[in-house]
Amino acid sequence: MVEDNLKRIYGELPPGVKLVAVSKFHPFEEILSAYQAGQRVFGENRPQEFASKALQLPQDIEWHFIGHLQTNKLKLVLPYASLVESVDSIHLLESIENWGSLNDRTVNVLLELHLGAEVTKGGFHESEIVDVLGNACKGCYPHVRFCGLMGMATNTDDESVIEADFKRIEDFKHRLDDIFPALKDFKELSIGMSDDWPIAVRHGATIVRIGTAIFGPRIY
Ligand SMILES: *Cc1c(COP(=O)(O)O)cnc(C)c1O
Q1: Phi–psi pair at 62, nearest 5 degrees
Q2: Could you tell me if 123 and 151 are in contact, meaning their C-beta atoms sit under 8 angstroms apart?
Q3: Which of 32, 68, 141, 151 has a 20 to 30 A CA-CA distance from 44?
Q4: What angle do CA 74, 144, 180 make, to 5 degrees?
Q5: Atom of ligand 1 nearest to the CA of 85
Q6: Distance of CA 21 from the midpoint of ligand 1 (Å)
Q7: Nearest atom in ligand 1 to 195's CA
Q8: pLDDT tens for each residue of 73-128
């Protein structure tokens, strides 16, 4: 089933768009089925589960961290993360910079833009991201590589609302590219989940994060 789901999605996904298989709450065996079908990029959102899976599953898996990250959990995540997609505060960013400096590592991150109607959702406002990237250009975060933006659309069945959310982050990404041409690694736009990824692809997604449509519903 996992293999069929992956095949179907890859059949529709334009080449060049990276599929992150979101395996949170799913057991090792399900991840291994996807791995055996050729999937190598997986996403998790809880630090303990992330570390345990990264340590025990095949070492050529590319792990993305996609959840809220508390600064006291960095050591569970940063050693294993190819990309931290969900950097949502200056405090977290500064802690990541510190960790990178202490461990002599450069950490790949996406900045999460607060998108969507829910106030409970995390993420930066646009002006904060402009400030962060301005400081990055001045050399404030030498151990952080800024690879792009991440966002989650409003949780709704109304496609026009989702469309508007994705258009906003797409336009903002283009504006940032104009303001900060020096940021050569700032290429990724991670938008789109199981229910809305085709819309995200139309709005320039370079990464989609898909869980349910691959692994089925999560049992919390
Ligand atoms: C869980 C999660 C996903 C995947 O959601 P599905 O609807 O199951 O595809 C994508 N992105 C983030 C940040 C998530 O937490």
Answers
A1: -95, 115
A2: yes
A3: 141
A4: 140
A5: 13
A6: 9
A7: 7
A8: 999 999 999 999 999 999 999 999 999 999 999 999 999 999 988 888 889 999 99
